[in-house]
Task: inverse folding
């Protein structure tokens, strides 16, 4: 339901669009006036700002320059819009009487009356704040107003009164500038008082002490202080060099954000205020002693000031009139003359103020006046806040649309605001978090992105891609990657075909985002000549022309062609790489999870018990070491024999005892056993004579001889009795049975048996002649397979080793050996059994730790680089298409951007398609982008805590989805902070009336929501109430843990997760420099020249050393900032400081969004003077009634101490304990240094840690360590870092961690070496519980490690199971590979494209490569060469060019005439053309020669006959 219908009953709106209109008016008025007391338009001429810094130059005192400006605005703009100014070219040599008059005036001033009036004002103020219902802000505001009035009456008016006659008599053209002095001087005095008052009020209210207040009044308004301020203010007022004064402007411009140079043309004066009529932005470019001033092609009209004066006059005369000026901006065409444009525009102003006279900008100085105002055509230079004109124009356009019925825009706003006020947003936080939790580990670690992303950033993308994720808020504490997040969103949007607009009010923030986008794209560019088509609007020298230039487009086109070649195969390789990496992660996670650490516990416990019982074996349970390899092999061999011998039968052991009781006897027993068994099997002797023995063998031979001797001449015919007798005897003796009674057969059988027995006993008696009696007992033994010759040999070798003493823990006691081998119940056997079992379990666990090897960090880089190429391909294709299809539009748009005009509405979709990502200042984007609903798929506002809802509201209109990033713990919007609460309340009351009405029964919830529309809220505050998804970035990437620890502790409840590993000494991260005070007072208030000089000295030393880390100075005081900037800029090496070190000096209030490697802090406070209490909180914890602006003071600390990346350097001139404020901050950092120094360094390895000492020994013996000598940091707290990834993580006590820092080619490479020395920590099961072991062998642990690797910190985890046979070599090899990985850019998937693009680019440059438009490919020049055509080059390559038609051969007759010939296709012979003449054909020709034609005709006739006869 529309808003007006939904709440009509309770608010009784009688006007159409009343609420939306009032809201727009409210925001517009705030942007125009800042809601200062009196609502005086803020843009007016000043020579100095409230800090006494130059912000205006009246060029009337430089006649030669004034003439140049006049000439410039009176010629065609296209001819030249620049003026060059050289040192001492334009000087003001005014009469010395003016200088003397100013000095005399200041000296003559009497401050007594001023101090009396101020004392009354202070007394009244002290009384007023005692009231119960006192509004302190209003009372402070009233005090400031009264002090300004006092200054104006007693000082300002007096100065004008004294100096005006002198200036008039001298004919000085500075008399007009004197008029504004009164207000400028008042601000000069009151502003520092206003800033310091809250600190004094804390004492007044909290302790009922006015000492600080009176001290502040005395210091600010005393005669000495006042005259010093005035002298500095008037310095250069009446004389000087224009070049020098412009340099002063430039110095101030560097100190503040959002300042811009303007040429003020024409003035309208009302009372003591001078407002410019017109102002033209210009740029300054310094170059070797000269500066070029270049005007932008637009004139802005000071509509607010003109309408303000007109309204006052109308109120005083009871008249009513429309706005004097219809439009705010005049766009200058090349043929225009600025003066003529101004002459046309001023006519409406002259008419509105009822001037009868004319004024022109085409001639000399003119001045006209009436009873109300004064107009003139003077020109001046100014430095002022960047214009909000584009936003004001947005609001005017919005109000115009609403005034004419509103149409679609009103309906959209009506619905939008109605949803804000009357609906609860659909919150998708749980949905997004559940979606993340449900992802597999591999999907969380491997994803399509061109840059690495943290978990929170992935969730933000998920929320944006959710249909209900329309409004998203991101809290981004310092250094947590807001710019990185924005880049990720931009990349994701581009790849999904969406449009995105990135806005911020901080130039630095936009620069960082632009740099990150370009950085990512540059990874896939072959050279810096390739321009990335990311459109940056509003920046000096907009990059649109550069992007769309012919050379840039051709470069992009060239690479785009190379990308398209082989794209399918490259995509397949990418898909395979992604699938492979995911599969490897899954395998590792599964295998890791399958390892039961309780088994390791049981093993280590058993080993510990075994070692306690047998201390001599401890050395064999260390990680594999070559020194003990032989011992381990011998024991392994022994246990292999034990395994075999345990299977021997007791009868065999009994049998073997006949040969002895040692291993040799056992070996011989086996050999004898084997010989007997093998011989018996071979000869089958015992098969025929089971009772055979060696003695009976002799009997057998005797019986054979006896039988043979019984043989007669008739054979054995008559020996039957003897034969039977012998048969019976043999049967009884050896069981040999012979069935036949034939003597010959019997003899033959006996002979065969003798032969077998002889063979058998021959085998045995060779080595065992004395053991023949054992044969029967062997034959009774079973399972012959248990007793092998190999076992016998092994036993013999074991026997020899025993004799040599080479079997550990086994002496020469023969009985012990046999017992060990054969008796499982023996003490020795139990010893070796236990030893072998423990070794076996160790090997089994070692096998579990043989996980699949893959390089997550490198393979992830490969994936990211591929996606960067895919991104480049997408945005290149878009801009190429744009230039090809809309070439004329591109030329027009270049001019529109140059002139800061709005894009044509009908062309904007084309522009969005060409440039899906646009970056622009919040104050500039509306100059280009039309005001239409939901123009962009995504609008991002960075540093949103500094952006008022009034500034952001037009951006909301343009967004389908909006994401705002900021930090409430840092500074808010300066405009809203400084706005008068009283005025704002009055303005906003009208807005609330429009929606809530005047009834008493108001919906409380609706009122609370309406309050979110107040300009006191930032867009971050506003959006928080309506966001669908909110998240806080917690991972801090900027500085080391010790550097960000202050902010994390006092502002974010220890929630910041510093991801940067400190691999260097704490002294290289935090440093205190105590500058000895010389006892002298500094000339300028709130400055300390000694600290400034010390910092300058340190920076110069840094330059000299070639240390190119960036540098900034941060100080609490504006005066010290100005002083440091001045002495640095005066040094001859200042250009190097700017270009090489990115040097800047900031105040605590102006450094938000900045970062530098080294930060110097200059606290200024000295033993003689300490004003830190005026800007910093006295205590970090609330101490009752504190400073009224405590929130702002705390924000100063959070912002200032979170800017550093590598080092913070605190420069102070008094003991920290004596600081009036801020000492707790510095003590915090002192404690950080103490804590860090308490951690043992390399020389203090824990002597109680056996693991640590041994791992350190390995490291120091590595060849790569000896080569690079890396810094080793033992006992490195990696658990703290892992806990930052998972707050529930509890680092196991058995881990020993080292940080190895290699410096290779001036780059630092950090490797975390983690040794799991649980063998030294698992003596008690209490040490292994749910609080530690579960974090080692889990899928979550694999994920944590890979995440840390994803941040660039390579982890190497080793333990006793995976360290290899040679730990030193294993470590050396793996660390060497890691160092190589650091150098690998991860571009293998796209390397071919990069190489081909580079080659093609070089080829086009040298002319050796051309582009074929038909196949759209880059080919070698040779593919286009054709000597048969005049140009020598074909239009298309050989592949795409059709071969020319065959040319007829020509023969040349003897007479030299050319005769044409033709080849017969049948016989392949060449004939004159006459051979092919055939007058019977219509053509008169035939294709065949005469002979072949006859043959063809004959064959045809035969076919015809055959057909007819068928």
Result:
């Amino acid at each position: 339901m529309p808003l007006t219908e939904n709440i009509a009953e309770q608010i009784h709106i009688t006007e159409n669009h009343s609420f939306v209109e009032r809201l727009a008016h409210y925001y517009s008025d705030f942007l125009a006036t800042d809601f200062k007391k009196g609502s005086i338009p803020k843009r007016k001429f000043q020579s100095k700002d409230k800090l006494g810094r130059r912000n205006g130059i009246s060029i009337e005192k430089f006649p030669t320059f004034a003439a140049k400006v006049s000439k410039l605005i009176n010629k065609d703009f296209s001819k030249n819009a620049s003026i060059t100014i050289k040192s001492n070219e334009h000087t003001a040599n005014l009469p010395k009487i003016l200088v003397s008059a100013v000095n005399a005036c200041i000296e003559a001033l009497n401050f007594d009356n001023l101090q009396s009036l101020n004392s009354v004002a202070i007394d009244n103020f002290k009384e007023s704040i005692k009231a119960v219902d006192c509004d302190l802000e209003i009372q402070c505001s009233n005090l400031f107003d009264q002090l300004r009035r006092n200054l104006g009456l007693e000082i300002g008016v007096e100065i004008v009164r004294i100096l005006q006659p002198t200036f008039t008599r001298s004919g000085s053209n500075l008399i007009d500038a004197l008029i504004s002095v009164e207000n400028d001087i008042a601000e000069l005095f009151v502003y520092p008082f206003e800033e310091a008052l809250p600190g004094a009020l804390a004492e007044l209210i909290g302790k009922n002490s006015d000492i600080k207040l009176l001290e502040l009044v005395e210091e600010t308004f005393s005669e000495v202080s006042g005259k010093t301020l005035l002298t500095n203010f008037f310095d250069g007022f009446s004389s000087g060099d224009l070049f020098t004064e412009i340099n002063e402007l430039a110095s101030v411009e560097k100190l503040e954000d959002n300042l811009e140079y303007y040429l003020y043309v024409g003035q309208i004066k009302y009372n003591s205020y001078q407002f410019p009529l017109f102002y033209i932005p210009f740029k300054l470019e310094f170059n070797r002693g000269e500066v070029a001033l270049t005007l932008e092609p637009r004139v802005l009209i000071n509509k607010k000031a003109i309408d303000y004066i007109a309204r006052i006059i109308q109120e005083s005369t009871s008249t009513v009139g429309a706005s004097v000026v219809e439009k705010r901006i005049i766009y200058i065409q090349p043929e225009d003359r600025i003066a003529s444009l101004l002459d046309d525009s001023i006519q409406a102003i002259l008419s509105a103020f009822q001037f009868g006279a004319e004024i022109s900008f085409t001639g000399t100085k003119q001045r006209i006046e009436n009873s109300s105002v004064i107009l003139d055509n003077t020109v001046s230079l100014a430095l002022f806040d960047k214009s909000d004109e584009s936003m004001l124009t947005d609001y005017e356009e919005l109000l115009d649309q609403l005034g004419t019925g509103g149409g679609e825009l009103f309906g959209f706003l009506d619905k939008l605001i109605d949803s804000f006020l009357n609906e609860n947003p659909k919150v998708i936080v749980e949905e997004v978090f559940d979606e993340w939790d449900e992802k597999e580990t591999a999907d969380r670690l491997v994803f399509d992105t061109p840059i690495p992303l943290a978990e929170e950033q992935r969730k933000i993308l998920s929320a944006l891609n959710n249909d209900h994720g329309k409004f998203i808020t991101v809290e981004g504490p310092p250094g947590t990657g807001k710019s990185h997040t924005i880049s990720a969103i931009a990349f994701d949007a581009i790849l999904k075909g969406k449009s995105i607009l990135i806005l911020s009010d901080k130039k630095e923030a936009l620069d960082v985002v632009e740099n990150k986008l370009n950085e990512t794209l540059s990874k896939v560019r072959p050279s810096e000549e390739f321009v990335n088509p990311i459109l940056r609007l509003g920046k000096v020298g907009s990059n649109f022309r550069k992007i769309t230039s012919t050379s840039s487009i051709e470069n992009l086109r060239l690479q785009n062609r190379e990308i398209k070649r082989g794209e399918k195969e490259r995509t397949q390789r990418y898909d395979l790489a992604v699938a492979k990496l995911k599969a490897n992660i899954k395998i590792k996670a599964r295998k890791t999870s399958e390892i039961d650490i309780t088994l390791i516990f049981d093993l280590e416990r058993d080993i510990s018990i075994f070692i306690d019982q047998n201390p001599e074996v401890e050395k064999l349970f260390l990680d594999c070491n070559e020194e003990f390899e032989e011992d381990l092999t011998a024991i392994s061999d022994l246990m292999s024999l034990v395994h075999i011998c345990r299977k021997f039968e007791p009868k065999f052991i009994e049998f073997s005892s006949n040969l002895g009781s040692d291993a040799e006897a056992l070996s011989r027993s086996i050999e004898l056993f084997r010989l007997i068994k093998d011989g018996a099997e071979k000869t089958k002797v015992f098969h025929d004579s089971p009772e055979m023995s060696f003695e009976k063998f002799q009997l057998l031979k005797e019986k054979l001889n006896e039988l043979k001797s019984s043989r007669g001449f008739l054979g054995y015919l008559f020996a039957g009795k003897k034969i039977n007798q012998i048969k019976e005897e043999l049967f009884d003796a050896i069981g040999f049975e012979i069935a036949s009674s034939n003597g010959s057969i019997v003899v033959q059988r006996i002979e065969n048996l003798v032969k077998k027995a002889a063979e058998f006993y021959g085998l045995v008696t060779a080595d065992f002649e004395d053991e023949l009696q054992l044969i029967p007992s062997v034959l009774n033994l079973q399972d012959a397979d248990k007793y092998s010759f190999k076992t016998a040999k092994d036993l013999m070798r074991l026997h020899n080793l025993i004799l040599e003493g080479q079997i550990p823990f086994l002496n020469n006691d023969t009985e012990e050996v046999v017992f060990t081998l054969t008796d499982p119940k023996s003490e020795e056997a139990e010893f070796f059994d236990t030893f072998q079992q423990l070794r076996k379990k160790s090997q089994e666990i070692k096998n579990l730790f043989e996980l699949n090897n893959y390089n997550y960090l490198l393979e992830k880089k490969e994936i990211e680089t591929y996606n960067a190429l895919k991104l480049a391909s997408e945005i290149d294709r878009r801009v190429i298409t744009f230039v090809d299809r809309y070439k004329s539009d591109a030329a027009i748009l270049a001019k529109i951007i140059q002139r800061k005009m709005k894009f044509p509405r009908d062309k904007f979709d084309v522009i969005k398609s060409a440039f899906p990502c646009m970056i622009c200042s919040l104050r500039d984007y509306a100059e280009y982008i039309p005001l239409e609903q939901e123009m962009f798929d995504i609008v991002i506002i960075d540093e949103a805590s500094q952006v008022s809802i009034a500034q952001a509201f037009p951006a909301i209109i343009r967004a389908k989805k909006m994401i705002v990033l900021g930090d409430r713990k840092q500074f808010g919007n300066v405009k809203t902070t400084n706005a008068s609460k009283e005025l704002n309340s009055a303005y906003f009351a009208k807005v609330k009336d429009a929606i809530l009405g005047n009834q008493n029964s108001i919906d409380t919830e609706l009122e609370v929501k309406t309050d979110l529309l107040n300009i006191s809220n930032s867009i971050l505050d506003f959006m928080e109430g309506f966001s669908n998804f909110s998240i806080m970035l917690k991972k801090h990437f900027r500085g080391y843990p010790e550097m960000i620890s202050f902010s994390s502790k006092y502002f974010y409840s220890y929630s910041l997760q510093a991801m940067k590993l400190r691999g260097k000494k704490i002294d290289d991260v935090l440093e205190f420099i105590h500058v000895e005070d010389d006892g002298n007072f500094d000339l300028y208030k709130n400055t300390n020249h000694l600290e400034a000089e010390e910092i300058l000295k340190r920076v110069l030393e840094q330059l000299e050393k070639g240390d190119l880390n960036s540098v900034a100075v941060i100080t609490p005081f504006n005066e010290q900032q100005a002083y440091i900037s001045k002495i640095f800029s005066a040094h001859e090496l200042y250009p190097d400081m700017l270009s090489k070190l990115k040097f800047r000096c900031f105040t605590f209030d102006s450094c938000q969004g900045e970062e530098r490697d080294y930060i110097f802090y200059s606290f200024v406070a000295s033993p003689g003077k300490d004003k830190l209490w005026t800007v910093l909180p006295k205590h970090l914890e609330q101490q009752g009634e504190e400073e009224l602006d405590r929130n702002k003071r705390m924000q100063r600390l959070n912002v200032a101490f979170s800017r550093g990346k590598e080092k913070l350097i605190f420069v102070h001139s008094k003991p920290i304990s004596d600081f009036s404020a801020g000492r707790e901050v510095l003590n915090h950092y002192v404690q950080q240094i103490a804590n860090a120094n308490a951690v043992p360094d390399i020389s203090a390895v824990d002597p109680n840690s056996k693991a640590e000492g041994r791992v350190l020994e390995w490291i120091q013996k590595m060849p790569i360590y000896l080569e690079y000598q890396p810094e080793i940091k033992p006992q490195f707290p990696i658990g703290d870092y892992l806990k930052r990834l998972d707050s529930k993580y509890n680092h196991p006590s058995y881990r020993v961690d080292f940080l190895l820092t290699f410096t290779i080619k001036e780059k630092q490479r950090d490797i975390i070496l983690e040794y799991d020395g649980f063998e030294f920590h698992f003596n008690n099961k209490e040490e292994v519980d749910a609080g530690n072991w579960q974090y080692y062998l889990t899928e979550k642990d694999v994920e944590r490690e890979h995440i840390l690797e994803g941040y660039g910190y390579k982890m190497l985890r080793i333990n006793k199971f995976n360290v290899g046979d040679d730990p030193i070599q294993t470590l050396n090899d793996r660390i060497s590979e890691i160092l190589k990985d650091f150098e690998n850019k991860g571009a293998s998937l796209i390397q071919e494209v990069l190489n081909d693009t580079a080659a093609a680019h070089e080829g086009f440059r040298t002319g050796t490569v051309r582009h074929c438009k038909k196949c759209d490919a880059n080919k070698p020049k040779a593919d286009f060469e054709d000597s048969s055509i005049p140009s020598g080059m074909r239009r298309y390559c050989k592949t795409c060019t059709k071969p020319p038609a065959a040319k007829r051969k020509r023969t040349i007759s003897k007479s030299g005439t050319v005769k044409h010939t033709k080849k017969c296709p049948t016989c392949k012979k060449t004939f004159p053309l006459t051979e092919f003449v055939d007058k019977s054909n219509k053509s008169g020709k035939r294709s065949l020669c005469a002979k072949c034609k006859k043959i063809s005709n004959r064959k045809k006739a035969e076919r015809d006959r055959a057909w007819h006869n068928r």
